[in-house]
């Protein structure tokens, strides 16, 4: 048993080394990948729970790596964060997603399909955030109210006025700010009033307990409480990770406003957004 344990450790070490080498290689390859256009965006619809119509979509970046195939954001966003490449990469995602939102609007006869774009902490601290965002909106002609920037709750924990100022200015311009992964960041709930946010995105960990029925009663209570709190502060609630019809029905009954998840649609190519017949998915 000892020998096997030893082998396992050697194996684990080798694996850790391989991962470190891959991380190093991926980090170095990021700038050229951006230049060569190896990144692309998948879009996942956000659905009104009330009637199942599409509210908009979240832009989720992927890397089509020549050697490793398609890599998810968890593999490279942290690396891009650490090197600062997230700033030009994030700007590219914003520009491309906003351009796509305009295409959908034209195809839908001007209907205001919204676009959600993720912002990482480094982008929040970058002095060009407001100017870049305004420039992208003006160039595309997209109304600021059709853009929602998603900031994680943990990125705003302990945020001072200096950090919040750019978000306030964007909110004043009409851009929606969503608090992403809400509930995972252990933030001070009283702090919520200070933040220029209009949407809470409830993390998947809170909705998982409703995938099977009967639902986990504690999760039901928590979601009920968060929805009441959010609505009393005039914030909309988006739920993530809706995978089953039972879960959708329960979250809808609890008063959640919009939803996102595999039950409705997985992230995919932009042309899928308007071929989706989401009315079939109304719980
Ligand atoms: P997130 O913002 O919380 O995005 C939601 C994640 O949940 C996405 O993973 C999505 O594919 C996944 N998801 C959606 N519905 C379901 C479901 O029903 N069940 C399950 N199990 N998962 C579901 P993805 O695309 O791998 O993205 C992971 C994270 O990477 C995102 O989490 C976000 O934090 C980050 N990310 C993605 N794109 C960008 C970007 O352009 N910029 C930045 N800064 N971060 C990004
Ligand atoms: Ca997000
Ligand atoms: Ca999230
Ligand atoms: Ca999440």
Report on the structure:
It comes from Streptomyces virginiae (Streptomyces cinnamonensis). Residues 23-281 form the EAL domain. This is GGDEF domain-containing protein. 45% of the residues lie in helices and 19% in strands. The chain has nine helices and nine strands. The chain has helices at residues 2-36, 73-83, 86-107, 121-125, 129-140, 161-173, 204-207, 217-232, 245-253; strands spanning 39-48, 54-65, 69-71, 114-119, 147-152, 176-182, 199-202, 236-239, 258-259. The longest helix has 35 residues, at 2-36. It is globular and about 50 Å long. The termini are far apart. The model is unreliable at 277-283 (pLDDT under 50). The chain binds ligand C2E and calcium ion (3 copies). One calcium ion binds at residues 181, 203-204.
The largest sheet has its strands arranged as 1-2-4-5-6-7-8-9
Order of helices and strands: HEEEHHEHHEHEEHHEHE
What general form does the structure show? globular
Major sheet summary line = 8 strands, mixed, barrel
The mean pLDDT is 89
- Give the helix tally: 9
Task: Put the structure in a nutshell.
It comes from Streptomyces virginiae (Streptomyces cinnamonensis). Residues 23-281 form the EAL domain. Helix content is 45%, strand content 19%.
């Amino acid at each position: 048993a000892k020998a096997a344990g030893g082998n396992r450790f050697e194996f684990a070490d080798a694996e850790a080394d391989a991962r470190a080498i891959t991380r190093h290689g991926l980090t170095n390859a990021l700038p050229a990948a951006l230049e060569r256009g190896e990144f692309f965006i998948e879009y996942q619809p956000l659905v009104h729970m009330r009637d199942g119509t599409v509210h908009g979509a979240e832009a989720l970046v992927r890397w089509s790596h020549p050697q490793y195939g398609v890599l998810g954001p968890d593999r490279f966003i942290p690396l891009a964060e650490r090197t600062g490449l997230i700033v030009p990469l994030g700007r590219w995602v914003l520009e491309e997603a906003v351009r796509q939102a305009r295409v959908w609007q034209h195809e839908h006869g001007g209907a205001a399909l919204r676009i959600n774009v993720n912002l990482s902490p480094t982008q929040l601290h970058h002095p060009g955030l407001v100017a870049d965002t305004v420039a992208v909106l003006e160039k595309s002609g997209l109304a600021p109210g059709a853009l929602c920037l998603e900031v994680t709750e943990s990125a705003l924990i302990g945020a001072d006025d200096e950090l919040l100022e750019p978000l306030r200015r964007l909110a004043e311009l009409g851009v929606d700010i969503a608090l992403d992964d809400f509930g995972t960041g252990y933030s001070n709930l009283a702090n919520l009033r200070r933040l220029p946010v209009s949407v809470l995105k409830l993390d998947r960990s809170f909705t998982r307990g409703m995938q099977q029925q009967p639902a986990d009663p504690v999760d039901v209570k928590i979601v009920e409480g968060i929805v009441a709190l959010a609505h009393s502060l005039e914030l909309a609630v988006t739920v993530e990770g809706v995978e089953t019809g039972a879960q959708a029905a329960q979250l809808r009954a609890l008063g959640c406003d919009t939803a996102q998840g595999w039950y409705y649609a997985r992230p995919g190519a932009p042309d899928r957004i308007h071929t989706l017949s989401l009315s079939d998915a109304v719980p």
